[in-house]
Amino acid sequence: MGSKMESPDNELVMACRNGNLRNFQILVERYKKPVYYFALGMIGNADDALDISQEAFINAYKSLSRFDDSRQFKSWLFAIAANLCKNALRAAAVRRKYLGSDGVIDIGAVNAADPEKCLITKEKKEAVWKALSEIDEEAREIIILKHFQDMSYKEIAEVLDIPAGSVMSRLHYARLKLKNALGEDCR
After folding, report:
1. pLDDT tens, per residue, the chain with 187 residues
2. For the CA atoms of 69, 159, 145, 77, what is the dihedral angle to 10 degrees?
3. What is the pTM of this model?
4. Which of 19, 42, 135, 147 has its CB 3.0 to 4.6 Å from that of 139, i.e. a possible disulfide?
5. Residue 67, CA distances (Å) to 9, 75, 169 in order
């Protein structure tokens, strides 16, 4: 039998519901970086991403009794984070620039597992992040979930609450939007 750290997410959620709240800390440790990096990719600001990721865990904890056991905890948590990001972006509609003070997102903080070939040099990374900030939120969200969070189509479908077939279609069009936003920067 493995340690608690190796327990499936939904087992940890059940243990939390039964009063063993230390298991929630395991879930936090397991997902704090992926949720933070997702929020950073969506929002483009490290401080706001940290606030959103913390708020996602608080909301998840408060809602554990309403968690649907037929879903994956990871997908449910990312759906909460995605909604918080969307709300933050709507609230900041007046400042439509998601770039840092130097004109780029802090790419050093992002731990992407080489999601695109053009992310080899710093300049090309900056071009990709700038292009991501210029495409619509729906396209940016699906690209980040697939390429930066390495989620399966099924997981993305759960996070976005859409059919799996729609994930492939949206991802295709999101990649086209990103390619167009990149222009000559990544060719």
Report:
1. 445 556 799 999 999 988 888 999 999 999 999 999 999 999 888 999 999 999 999 999 999 999 998 889 999 999 999 999 988 887 765 444 434 444 444 444 444 444 444 445 667 777 778 888 889 989 999 998 988 888 899 999 999 989 988 999 999 999 999 989 888 655 5
2. -50
3. 0.71
4. 135
5. 12, 11, 28
